[in-house]
Design a protein that fits this description.
The chain has helices spanning 45-48, 94-97, 143-171, 199-203, 207-216, 218-228, 231-252; strands at residues 10-12, 22-23, 37-39, 54-57, 65-69, 101-105, 115-120, 126-127, 132-133, 175-177, 180-184, 187-191, 194-197. The protein is an alpha+beta fold.
Length: 256
């Protein structure tokens, strides 16, 4: 299962094995505290662009996909605090909101639907005594589970649309490499393997393609991405605040 990140023990949702399982609300996103970026779908670009940098990342241009940059150091999400609370009034990517459920593609040749629902058995909200049941007594999905599965289905549709969007960017050679270099207190932070849309190449699109991009919403997604790049400085400021907090905590520690 690709891109599972914080899913520690993902297993297929099973009506028999999980018939008594309940989901208790847990007001914490600590599970996402160690990811410095997560995949993003194109439909999220306009909302996400207000708060986070939207970049394209991958081993090469052929494999690059959109992601929300959440931190500048490995294994650190600057939008989740020590208590597991997400930064107030900032966008939470759908990739994170769908947890503890996920849709996984079935192995080729296996019968049944193309995708099956998995859940993370390690999630602290799962138990057999508190919270909402996943299944009714007759084995049918509860409203809560039905809503979660519907969300997964919508998310997967957005993923497919985003793949099409990336195909268009590659088809018209609109991506270019972008290395991000930040100087902080004499130290250098380098972010490599990133791509952005070239504004110069975008301006050179012929009228027919530009009109098609406008009609299909591609231009809106592109400009949301370009506008979001200014948020790199805002993420850097978050890192400054985090480092100041760390320095304060270290300074207040006394040895008896």
């Amino acid at each position: 299962m690709a891109e599972v990140f914080f899913y520690e023990r993902p297993v297929p949702l099973n009506r028999s094995a999980h018939k008594d399982l309940r989901l208790k609300p847990v007001p914490s996103l600590k599970f996402a505290a160690n990811v410095h970026s997560v995949p993003l779908t194109g439909v999220e670009f306009p909302a996400a662009a207000r708060d986070v940098p939207i970049l394209f990342a991958g081993a090469d241009m052929k494999d690059a996909g959109p992601m929300a940059l959440l931190g500048l150091r490995q294994n650190e999400n600057l939008f989740v605090d020590a208590d597991g609370q997400w930064a107030s009034n900032t966008y939470v990517p759908a990739f994170i909101r769908r947890y503890p459920f996920i849709l996984a593609e079935k192995p080729e040749g296996q019968e049944g639907d193309d995708f099956t629902v998995f859940l993370d058995e390690a999630y602290e909200g799962f138990n057999t005594e508190q919270g909402e049941r996943l299944f009714k007594e007759d084995g049918a999905d509860t409203e809560m589970l039905a809503n979660a599965v519907n969300f997964l289905g919508e998310f997967q549709q957005h993923v497919a649309r985003t793949h099409w969007f990336m195909d268009q960017l590659r088809k018209y050679d609109l991506l270019e490499p972008r290395n991000i270099r930040l100087e902080k207190d004499g130290k250098t932070i380098n972010l490599n393997g990133l791509f952005v849309v070239s504004e110069e190449k975008l301006r050179q699109l012929d009228e027919k393609v530009a009109h098609e991009f406008l009609k299909e919403g591609v231009l809106g997604w592109i400009y949301a991405h370009l506008l979001s790049l200014a948020n790199i400085d805002r993420v850097s400021l978050r890192l400054n605040e985090r480092e100041q907090t760390e320095a304060g905590s270290a300074g207040s520690t006394t040895v008896n």
